[in-house]
Amino acid sequence: MKRPIIALLLSGLILPGLGQLYLGRRNKGIALIMAVNLLLLAALFFVMKIASPVIGAYLTGTPLTPALILQQLQPYNFWAKLLLAAVFGLWGFGLVDLFSAFKEQDDVTRN
Predict the structure, then answer these.
(1) 3-state secondary structure at position 74
(2) Which of 23, 41, 42, 54 is the most exposed place for a label (fewest CB within 10 A)?
(3) Dist. CA 51–CA 36, nearest whole Å
(4) In angstroms, rounded to a whole number, what is the distance separating the alpha carbons of residues 57 and 34?
(5) Cα(67)–Cα(32) distance, rounded to whole angstroms?
(6) Distance CA 51, CA 45 (A)
(7) pLDDT at 1
């Protein structure tokens, strides 16, 4: 019973897909890790795209106001929410997949 707990901790707290790798489900683990990394890379792109005009305004001496920052955030509002939902959805899928793997393993050991 120790293996499932370690797998859940790896996938739930560190990175989705690590628990699958730990349990030997290599293809699913690698696919989940690649998908999460792709989403994190997209999030980094959005952060840099939003931050660059704000940093530019700071470097040129333009006063930074909340209105300026909100103006830069507004066009990416929908995409940021979609990206966050995708990350959480992928994380949840990884955990649900682990629970189904545990259930399959219990069914096999009982029979």
Answers:
(1) helix
(2) 41
(3) 22
(4) 35
(5) 38
(6) 10
(7) 56
Kindly list the domain boundaries of the chain, sorted by start residue: 2-110
| pLDDT tens-digit readout, 62-81 | 888 888 888 888 888 898 89
User: In this predicted model, what pLDDT tens digit does every residue of 19-59 receive, in sequence order?
Assistant: 899 888 899 999 999 999 999 999 999 889 888 888 888 89
CB 28 within 8 A of CB 97: yes
**Which residue in this structure is represented by tokens 């704000």?**
54
- 19/12 Cα distance (integer angstroms): 8
